[in-house]
């Protein structure tokens, strides 16, 4: 491949660059690529051939572990705990739903209350919101919740509940 490309020098004289070296570099590249693949395959095969016993032992151990976990999950003790978890999740969801309904009912009452300025209404709504947050969430949960809703909303899960919130976060709450 003798390719001649014009090259401008400082004196604007035309020079020709010999591109023959690219054939050599391309051949070296392809040769190295083949060696790399061949050696990688050899290493993989060597590892597989020399660890068959250990791999089988690990697979057997995993099978035994899975069988034991299945047996444990079928015990009355675990089944009872699972029912208690489901009951707790249901109660949490119901409590959050009731608190949410109460929040929006009181918020509507505040917004419709005559004699309050818009600023006063927003202050009362904020106090109501903070009171509910303090009653239902830990400090860490509140920080996570507020960070999540300040970013525009998203899915919120509280201790396994299924409360969802989408949209403009605090704007939906009246802030």
Quick overview:
The protein has 175 residues and is mostly helical. The chain has a domain at 93-173.
Description:
By secondary structure, this protein is mainly alpha-helical. It has a domain at 93-173. Helix content is 71%, strand content 8%. It contains 6 helices and 4 strands; from the N terminus they run ββαααααββα. It has helices at 21-50, 52-73, 76-112, 118-136, 139-150, 170-173, and strands at 4-8, 14-18, 154-155, 164-165. The protein has a two-stranded antiparallel sheet. A two-stranded antiparallel sheet has the order 3-4. Helix 3 packs antiparallel against helix 4 (118-136). The longest helix is centred in the middle third of the chain and has 37 residues, at 76-112. The chain is flat and about 90 Å long. It starts with a strand and ends with a helix. The model is unreliable at 159-175 (pLDDT under 50).
Describe the secondary-structure layout.
Blueprint: E1 4-8, E2 14-18, H1 21-50, H2 52-73, H3 76-112, H4 118-136, H5 139-150, E3 154-155, E4 164-165, H6 170-173
Antiparallel strand pairs: 1-2, 3-4
Helix pairs in contact: 3-4
Q: What proportion strand?
A: 5-15%
Shape: flat
> Using DSSP, what is the number of strands?
4
What can be said about the biggest beta sheet? 2 strands, antiparallel
Uncertain stretches: 159-175
Name a few traits of the molecule.
175 residues, two-stranded antiparallel ribbon, mainly alpha, flat, 6 helices
